[in-house]
Design a protein that fits this description.
single chain; alpha/beta; eight-stranded mixed beta sheet; 17 strands
Length: about 550
Amino acid sequence: MTSSTGAAAEGRAGTAAGDRAGAAAGARGSAAPTVFVLVPEIHTGAWVWDELAVRLRESGAGVWAVELSGTGAADGDAGSTFVAGSTRTADAAATTPVDLETHIADVLAAVDALTPPGDGDAAGPDQYLVLVGHGYGIHPALGAADRRPGRVARIVHLDTGSPQDGDPPLALGADQTLRERLTGPHLPPPAAGDLQRWGSLDGVPADALALLTSRAVPQPTATLTQPLRLTGAAAGVPSTGVLCTANGTSIALVELLVGMGDPRVLPLVDRRVRFFELATGHWPMLSRPAELAAVLLEAAEGGGQRLTPRAEGAAAPPGTFPLDVAERPRERHGRVDLHLPEDEQPVPAVVFVHGGPVPADGRPTPRDSSTFLGYARYAASLGAVGVTLDHRLHDLSGFERAAEDVAAAVDLVRGHPRVDADRVALWFLSGGGVLSAEWLAAPPKWLRCVALTYPVLAPLPNWGLAADRFRPAEALRGAGSLPVVLTRVGQELPEIAATVEEFLTAAKECAADVEVVDVPDARHGFETLDHTDGTRAALRRAMTSVLRRLEPHGGSGER
């Protein structure tokens, strides 16, 4: 078999050899054989790991796939399946509901069986144990590591997030219809046409797709609703993220969030955290088993790419805006701020809509950030009311709440005495772009323009949004003559750039009025990252175009 370093490099994008040079050699500090404990995604069982297990065992590693309680009998490779659920007594199985703590106990049983304690609670010298959690499986994996931190050498997050203490698995799940379907003790398995709700099926062969449907099992509801409880004991255990790019996540995207100061991802710059990418969908054990095996083997050796800390990647001073704009009088009405121009007569308004998800307790909130203060003050300096709001897109289940907040903000703005209610523009940035769909689909007469800046214009696969309500490319066919001003950055992330191209293709097909402002050298979030002549010119041009459409008769000349 090809060495793990070489094979892994063949199967993922964006991980330069120089980033990993020397990372594996001596990084783990143990000569004990590696044992992988594999914890599956919702509705699946140990069988889903079978082909991967063969590849790992061929390399000399040990493999144990955990069969979680309440999800059916063990049906994986008998040589590598740990039927942890069988440790429950018959009375307990009959009288105690299966919940997240049950699944944590299942993983703990595997950890305890594979790593008998040596001195204290530390693992004995015979095993180097790596926990791998896929999707939902990261929750019981983290719970087990938190209770046995001395016995776990590394935690691998396989195409999944990083849940925190108090987070129920439901909050991290990709399928945003889950809450509506949790009506009984078990969540029924998905039908064949619903598998994509749990992420991209890119690369999965037809026979494996058939297995995902035919062997899917009900999921105990309490495993999804019970909060994960973590003490922080495993905070020092090294971790690895394996990101599946066809599912909408990449190292570049995570680094972008780090560069923009997102507090949720700043801990990921820790030297004990490494990342890999696989150019496939959410099920790499079925679509790319050989490449996933190589990545896991290299991860066990301490390989992978570190994230670039903010101080090394930011090109602009923190807390600044590319244009020098003066502060304007501001009125605060609940979630909404109005930055007022000098003219006290009713004037047009521009409502700026942020992206997300944004943590509910994050500070500053979007409307108090340098980006949105800059936009609103700039609009006010040119004679319009600049409006910002903090909508409730705090996690992937929050798009409908955010849409309601935007609509409520618009109603408030149009009723304000300083605003001409018949001349309003909506300006969506980043992930807020999908919220433009319903305004494009049936624009009211008072909506004179929609602006989009480095927008996400279709839900990414791992967002779990199946509703057409948030698909601007489809909605554009109902926009009629509504002008759209789209600022496109040349250094956009590929997964986001694809949604912009889809939108522009739809615009061409329906002859929509779309003006594109190109900024070739700019990145997503350029107001924070790139203060250049190019970004300043783009801001001026986009604002001029929007305000021209807000003139009493639509305006056709430069301001």
